[in-house]
Amino acid sequence: MPSRTTPTVPSPQDRSGPHRRTAEGSPREPRDAMDVLALADRLFRWADARDWAGPDPYDGLTGPAARLAVHRVLRQAILQAVKRSRVDLRGILGIRPLRTATATGTAAGACARLSAHPVWQERALRLGLSTAAEQMSGRYAGLWRYEFDVQTRWAYYPASVPNLVATTFCADGCLDTGTLGPEAVRSLAHGLLEHLHNGAFFTYTPTSGVLVHNANLMGAALAARLARTVALPDGLEDRLTDAARGAVEVSLAGQRPDGSWPYGRGPRLDWVDGFHTGYVLLRLEQAGTLLDLDVRGPLERGTGHYLRHLFDGPLPRYFADGRTRRDPNNDATAVRMAAWAAGHGFVGAGFARSVLSAVVDRYPGLGTQPRAGGSHGNRALWESPRWSAAPMLDALTALHAVLPDGRGPAAPVGQRTPAA
Question: Most buried of 157, 204, 283, 328, CB within 10 angstroms?
Answer without folding.
Answer: 283
